[in-house]
Design a protein that fits this description.
heterodimer, A: mainly alpha, Arp2/3 complex 21 kDa subunit ARPC3, 2 strands, globular, disordered C terminus, B: mainly alpha, 2 domains, 7 helices, 83% helix
């Protein structure tokens, strides 16, 4: 789920870029100290996986597209800050190499999916892990998709109010919350199940290979 | 006198950075342009400036935006006709939105062809590190998926059954993860030997 270029008013995407730049600076602080030569290959590999997942997308009439993210997986294995940075890189590459998503919308997409989605995954996982670890992984992945979709639906649905001509015609994205919320949340409730299943599969694979134990320094972020 | 190699690389990096800044400024400019005629003129200029690359870039941009923009445009048309909004106003809005999106994506595709992103991002080492590692992995994944697809097709002259597809997908996924991990381990060891992880 990306917002493409040209759908957002500059009064949204310019401040979002500013906020995202601050968040990227925060996330990049001490990154080299926290990631070593064992964690970096895994981060790179799962970043490539997230990139691949994001390219298999279905357009949604709510002004976005539906696809798996992989952000929960990155967050659960490497911590929020490296995952946010890596996912922002994925979004930038998808926008530049395939025109999927957009550079103007990069700040909003990165904050909604990478930071808020990742933080949701981390929060849900910490909350539910004492009950049952694998259920916590699945719900964290599903929750990250739903919260990311909710933020994007709210941002998109605000466009007709933020920027329109004197005659009421919108200047950017035309649909309000009555359309964006169901159009994004309903399909993503199903996509989230796929994301949960995939996250769980890779999580098990990572456990079998002992990946999750290595980036302990990263997970404390 | 021919420039020395390092100064030539620095010059290319500066040029790429300038193009990146110009692209960013153009995006801001396009965001405040709401006249379809002006947007069409800008698009025409971009097509002319791209010269022989214009057709390929246009095809690439259209492929990227067609499905999503079509669904939004048709949705808007349906809603506008249901709410009996003026046809001229709807047409003007759809033209503005689609031209703006197409032009922005076209410029992005053009930038990628013209600019070495890693050289342009050189002043931001963390971004360069992450993007170069991810790009390396993407290439590994792309090659591996193509190899697997060819092998699978050659093994199944008749349409394969679901069980065969499932087995193929599972073995492809496991190989992808392992191979990608091996490739990026190699890359990060090379980075380590060059001091990339030294605090």
């Amino acid at each position: 789920m990306h917002i493409p270029d040209g759908f957002l008013a500059p009064q949204i995407w310019l401040p979002a870029w500013g906020l995202a730049a601050g968040a990227w600076t925060w996330a990049a602080r001490d990154l080299r100290r926290r990631l070593d030569e064992h964690a970096v290959p895994r981060l790179a590999m799962l970043t490539a996986l997230a990139y691949g997942l994001g390219l298999i997308m279905v357009p949604l009439p709510g002004g976005s597209s539906g696809h798996l993210l992989g952000v929960a997986l990155l967050t659960l294995l490497f911590g929020l800050r490296p995952a946010f940075l890596a996912y922002s890189g994925v979004l930038a590459l998808q926008a530049l190499l395939f025109g999927a998503g957009g550079i103007t919308a990069l700040g909003v997409n990165a904050l909604a999916l990478g930071l808020i989605g990742g933080a949701t995954a981390q929060g849900l996982f910490r909350l539910l892990r004492p009950l049952h670890e694998e259920t916590a992984v699945a719900l964290a992945a599903w929750g990250s998709i739903m919260v990311g979709a909710l933020v994007l639906a709210l941002v998109l649905g605000a466009q007709p109010w933020l920027a329109r001509r004197a005659d009421g015609t919108p200047l950017f994205f035309p649909f309000d919350w009555s359309i964006t919320l169901p159009a994004l949340l309903l399909p993503h409730a199903l996509i989230g199940i796929g994301e949960a299943a995939l996250t769980l599969l890779v999580w098990r694979h990572a456990r079998r290979r002992g990946w999750h134990a290595l980036p302990a320094r990263a997970q404390t972020a | 006198m021919t420039p020395s190699r390092p100064s030539h690389a620095a010059h290319t990096g500066r040029r790429d950075r300038l193009l990146l800044y110009a692209y960013a400024a153009t995006l801001v400019g396009l965001s405040v342009l709401h006249h379809p005629g002006l947007l069409a003129a800008c698009f025409l200029l971009a097509l002319l400036a791209a010269r022989q690359e214009a057709t390929a870039l246009l095809r690439q941009s259209l492929a990227a935006i067609l499905a999503l923009n079509l669904s939004v445009s048709l949705g808007y048309l349906l809603l506008a006709s249901w709410q009996a909004e003026s046809t001229a106003g709807s047409a003007r809005f759809l033209l503005t939105l689609n031209l703006r999106v197409l032009l922005m994506v076209f410029l992005g595709c053009w930038l990628v062809r013209r600019v070495n992103l890693l050289a342009a991002l050189a002043p931001w080492p963390t971004a360069t590190l992450l993007i170069s590692l991810a790009l390396g992995q993407i290439e590994t994944v792309r090659r591996l998926v193509a190899d697997f697809r060819l092998a699978f097709t050659s093994r199944h002259p008749a349409p394969p059954r679901r069980a065969a597809r499932t087995r193929h997908a599972a073995s492809q996924a496991a190989t992808l993860l392992d191979k990608s991990l091996a490739a990026s381990t190699e890359a990060s060891q090379a980075l380590r030997s060059r001091g990339a992880f030294d605090a």
